[in-house]
Design goal:
Shape: flat
Structural class: mainly alpha
Order of helices and strands: HHHHEEHHHH
Strand order of the largest sheet: 1-2
Radius of gyration: 22 Å
Largest sheet: 2 strands, antiparallel
Strand content: under 5%
Distance between the termini: 27 Å
Helix content: 55-70%
Number of helices: 8
Length: 164
Amino acid sequence: MLAAHLSCASPRRFERPEPSPRRIDTPRRSCRHPRFPIWLYGLCVACSFLLFTPFALFDFTTFVRHVLSEATHLANGHAVMGQPLILGRGWWYHARFTLPYGMGSLMFLAAVAGIIVALWKQPRRALLVFLFPLAYYAFSGKGYTVFVRYMIPMLPFLCIGAPC
């Protein structure tokens, strides 16, 4: 986050502005063209992942085996006494039970309506705010493992969408 901030900051931004008789405020530099290329951000993400998850590099085969095991578990459902417990796909189950009962039905409907209105009125800003929850819901809802705790990261974004 610090690298993203520094890439958009100009060196003159931290200097004291000279008084101007015509203009009092100085326009802020936009961050449309960052100084760092996108591959550098990807490299920072990869390095930080390897820094905080070193076993992924040291024991790569076990890491891949465990990641694939978790993906299979999420896709096939949770087994109870040897039998898979299939409650339906996560997309439908969370939309029908987890989120309405977790937030309250009216708050959940207000959140969904607010997100739709926000995406319709200001699509760029709304997409910036709601891109993570939309991607997270699409990813976590595709399987049959439907624990309530999987929807906890969605709640703050739904609460943001409710007053829109």
